[in-house]
Amino acid sequence: MTVKRTIIKAGGVAVVLLALVAALAACGAAPAAPAAAPTAAPAPTQPPAPTPTDAPAPTPTEPPAPPAPTAEEILTTVRTFDLDIKPHDIAIAGDGNLYAVDLQNAQIVKYDQDGKRLLAWGERGSAEGQFEFLPPPDGPQMDGGFVTVDDAGNVFVSDSWNNRVQKFDPDGQHLATWSTFGPDEASFNVPGPISIDAEGRLYVADFSGVQRLDLDGNFLATIAAAGEAALNSQGQLFVPLAFQNIVLRLDGNDEVVGQWGGEGHGDGKFDFPMLLVIDSQDGVYVSDQSGRIQKFDGDGTFLGKWFPEMDSGDPTATLLEMTIDGEDNLYVAAKDRATVYVLRAP
After folding, report:
1. Rounded-to-5 percentages of helix, strand, coil across the chain
2. Sheet holding 293-296, edge to edge
3. If 229 and its partner were Cys, which of 203, 248, 279, 339 is the partner (CB 3.0–4.6 Å)?
4. What confidence tens digit (pLDDT) does each residue in 30-61 have?
5. pLDDT in tens, 176-222
6. CATH number for the domain running over 77-344
7. Contact 170, 154 (CB under 8 A)
8. Spatial distance between the Cα atoms of 266 and 64, rounded to a whole number of angstroms
9. How far from 62 is each of 59, 65, 66, 67, CA to CA, in Å?
């Protein structure tokens, strides 16, 4: 795994001056008029001395606000590398290896940090270690298959259309399968985005909500949301409610204490947000079907956006997958391309 005029008029004055000249008419033997005595010109007067006044103190002005950071300042590209598949989801492990969902071959593929294939496992089917990522012909046309990794390197896979979660070790050896949760043994209903929070709890989003489990599959709670969940440094949980195009902020008791968003493609708006990650500075990154990643602070203030076509045009309407490592490098991919973008907030 990056934004964002005065007119003056003037007029003139015209002055008209009119002068009259009188003529004298005299004829015959009239006595001459006495010459007028000259008069002294008035003495010039001095202009009054100005009265000193205190000059008004200059009014202090606030310095101009710094310009809003551009998208390139929100996330900069550190590097890119290509995989040999177009992944549907990705997850980064603590050792730097990347796990990717291969839809067409129903596999999990393991790569090194440069995109070299190391391992792959799985095939279509419903047995242990097999997957069904593609929807049935008569089902909702929504691709499945999501992946996350815990601190021990174990790999958790939403086996969406088998309605279960499978757990594997770093070498692809099957460890466990969970298809039900809760005291009533409810079944997973097309599990989708899957994540692990900073306290080591597993979140699985399905059509009935977001299920919180421990890493052994024991049920902890159901959250009324739909999307990938992440915890910030204050212990607040952030999770999308994709169908309503909002992001929720929950406290430690799972009570909603904030939300933001709304339907649309403008800044701060969403088109079915599904994926969410948080960096070490509590920056919240949200990916939706518009093909953008938007960054917010913990209160939902929009900070910027990024998409692969930033320099060339508009985003391509497809969900960008995200995963973040321990150094705040954001890895971004999409199922319509083989390129992985490694991004970082400056």
Report:
1. 5, 35, 60
2. 275-278, 284-287, 293-296, 302-306
3. 203
4. 333 334 444 444 444 454 444 444 445 555 55
5. 999 999 888 899 999 999 999 999 999 999 999 999 999 999 999 99
6. 2.120.10.30
7. yes
8. 26
9. 10, 8, 12, 15
Quick check: helix, strand or coil at residue 128?
A: coil
- The residue extents of the domains of the chain are 77-344
What are the b/e assignments for 245-255, b being 16+ CB within 10 Å?
A: bbbbbbeeeee
Question: 149 forms bridges with which residues in the sheet?
Answer: 155
Write out the two tokens for 177: 């399968």
Give the count of beta carbons closer than 10 Å to the beta carbon of residue 10. Answer: 4
* Structure tokens, 43: 């003495």
Instruction: Give the angle subtended at the CA of 71 by the CAs of 69 and 73, to the nearest 5°.
Output: 55
Share of the chain above pLDDT 70, in %: 79
Which among 335, 324, 331 has a CA at the least distance from the CA of 115?
A: 331
Could you give the CA distance from residue 75 to residue 91 in angstroms, rounded to a whole number?
Answer: 19
**Tokens found for residue 147:** 């992946």
